[in-house]
Amino acid sequence: MWITATVVEKIVWNDNLFSLKLDAEVAPFIAGQFIKLSQQIDGKRVARAYSLVNAPESEFLEVLAIAVEDGQLSPQLQSLVVGDQIDISPKATGFMTLEELPAISTESCLWLLATGTAVGPFLSMLRTAAIWQTYPHIALVYGVRQQQDLAYLADIEALKQQYGEQFSFVASVTREKVDGALPERISDAITSGALEQAVGHQLTSRDAQVMMCGNPQMITDVTEILKARGLEKNLRRKPGQITVEKYW
């Protein structure tokens, strides 16, 4: 089952990276969940999942996407303009939400590790009041190849201004030198100690709750590093410190 969404705004971040704001009557969702966008292409229905960037109470839905040259749907999404319509699933889904995390200590840091467009669900979470009321310190780590791939920097800066020392933001830019950004992959920055130094908190089983979303290789590498430190995957039957969602 599909419903129709109308494009009300398009934000172009670079030649391939863009956001779509959509007007559609979907069921209430939880920050961190995703919807599916779909089109009929050459007589076949093509659907892909996209995490919602907006807060649950926002008037419009918003997704962050990258156009892949040989992608079945993303080039068509990139061609959409204000007023165009797209099919959308009527209900969001997904389990990478704050509600799935175990209780934390008063000293714990919530680490949000993302690569590329997978920063989307974390931005949705950061736009809710609950996350700031629950976690004494929050660190968003955003890994990309080039500076132009960093989206929503103005929104992230606004969060820094609003929440001060409660919030840390670290960009990881691997293919060019950027002032203020780490010049290495997230996994390497953990191994070298540079990431913990930048945030001012330790990635230990006692002090950290880690959510990861994005590149499967990043998730695999970081998970192994954290497991070696004593952190464990978070399961409903056995709460841990590592919650993941692979983005392709």
Please, could you describe this protein's structure?
The chain is α/β, with parallel strands linked by helices and about 250 residues long. The protein has 2 domains: about 90 residues, Elongation Factor Tu (Ef-tu), domain 3 (Beta Barrel), CATH 2.40.30; about 150 residues, Nucleotide-binding domain of ferredoxin-NADP reductase (FNR) module (Rossmann fold), CATH 3.40.50. The protein contains 7 helices and 11 strands. A 6-stranded antiparallel beta sheet has the order 4-3-6-1-2-5. α5 packs parallel to α7. The longest helix has 13 residues. It is globular and about 50 Å long. The two termini are about 25 Å apart.
SSE topology sketch:
Elements: E1 3-12, E2 17-23, E3 34-41, E4 44-51, E5 61-66, H1 74-78, E6 85-88, E7 109-115, H2 120-126, H3 129-134, E8 137-144, H4 153-163, E9 167-173, H5 186-192, H6 194-199, E10 208-214, H7 216-228, E11 242-246
Parallel strand pairs: 7-8, 7-10, 8-9, 10-11
Antiparallel strand pairs: 1-2, 1-6, 2-5, 3-4, 3-6
Helix pairs in contact: 5-7
Protein traits:
single chain, 248 residues, alpha/beta, Elongation Factor Tu (Ef-tu), domain 3, Rossmann fold, 2 domains, six-stranded antiparallel beta sheet, five-stranded parallel beta sheet, 7 helices, globular
Rg, rounded, reads: 18 Å
Q: CATH superfamily of the largest domain, called what?
A: Nucleotide-binding domain of ferredoxin-NADP reductase (FNR) module
- Under the CATH scheme, the architecture of the largest domain is 3-Layer(aba) Sandwich
Fraction of residues in helix: 10-25%
Q: How much of the polypeptide forms β-strand, as a percent range?
A: 25-35%
CATH class category label of the largest domain: Alpha Beta
Terminal-residue CA separation = 23 Å
Helix/sheet category: alpha/beta
Major beta sheet, strand line-up: 4-3-6-1-2-5
Number of helices: 7
Mean of residue pLDDT? 95
